[in-house]
């Protein structure tokens, strides 16, 4: 079984600074890490490889420094990694990102077709949860989102069964492979890396692919290929400190009513 995992390099915080002049995230303000959901996606892919055999390939689109997150995936047990990196990708929104990743997957899977693609549920910086479904649509394969358990894989029938997280429970869904899965963190408990994998990761050099090598239409990439524009980006205003009202029940209720009336009168 060939499993491809899409992994994004993200800043190590959900509170990245915002540049008010350019309306963009200042990604340099925090160290880069593997998107936490994607680490669980890699671990799940490695577990399936351990049970069913095959290969786990990592794909990431990002700046040259993103080789480090690919090396981290090798440490977690992945076999190979590809970084899609080119100035032509800069400024890509989720539509363009999913196009570039889909083209990358087609390119690297030419001789070894994939049965599964794993993505995280969302990236902790962009937070849209659109890229996984976007890739599935472009590759015309089924998508299973918000998956918190893979219950069975029938390689002979090429069918996978999963639990999809809902607000008040879960649903059991079966899909024909190849398909794409986006994962919740509960899907597994991350395991420690083994020493051989750590040694391999230290020496590993990911494959690099640029725009020309993807057999893709460059007008679908970068700012040109991105119909979304960010009108404004801002940090929410800090709320003032709360106040504890002390006293007996009657006193605190009366004080509270007085405060609410004062607020409404303003
Ligand atoms: C107009 C515009 C311009 C932008 N310009 C830039 C820019 O110049 N530089 C920049 O870094 N961002 C830029 N962005 C943000 C960028 O579009 C998103 O970060 C990116 O499309 C992924 O979306 P997301 O973070 O919401 O991922 P989600 O959809 O939340 O991610 C879900 C999953 O998809 C996969 N995934 C997502 N992104 C990648 C990736 N890059 N590689 C591999 N797997 C991935 C991962 O498995 C992830 O868990 C821009 C956005 C807009 C709207």
Which features does this protein show?
13 strands; Rossmann fold; two-stranded antiparallel sheet; 26% strand; 266 residues; 6 helices; nine-stranded mixed beta sheet; alpha/beta; binds flavin-adenine dinucleotide
Secondary structure elements and their pairing?
Elements: E1 2-6, E2 9-11, E3 17-19, E4 24-26, E5 32-34, H1 36-52, E6 55-61, H2 67-75, E7 80-84, H3 94-108, E8 116-120, H4 131-139, E9 143-154, E10 159-166, E11 169-176, E12 179-183, H5 195-203, E13 207-209, H6 249-265
Parallel strand pairs: 1-6, 1-8, 6-7, 7-13, 8-12, 9-12
Antiparallel strand pairs: 2-5, 3-4, 9-10, 10-11
Helix pairs in contact: 2-5, 3-4
Taken from the alpha-carbon principal axes, the silhouette is: globular
**Rg, Å, rounded:** 22 Å
Strand coverage percent: 25-35%
Task: State the domain count.
Answer: 1
Secondary-structure-based class equals alpha/beta
Helix content: 25-40%
Sketch the major β-sheet.
9 strands, mixed
CATH top level is Alpha Beta
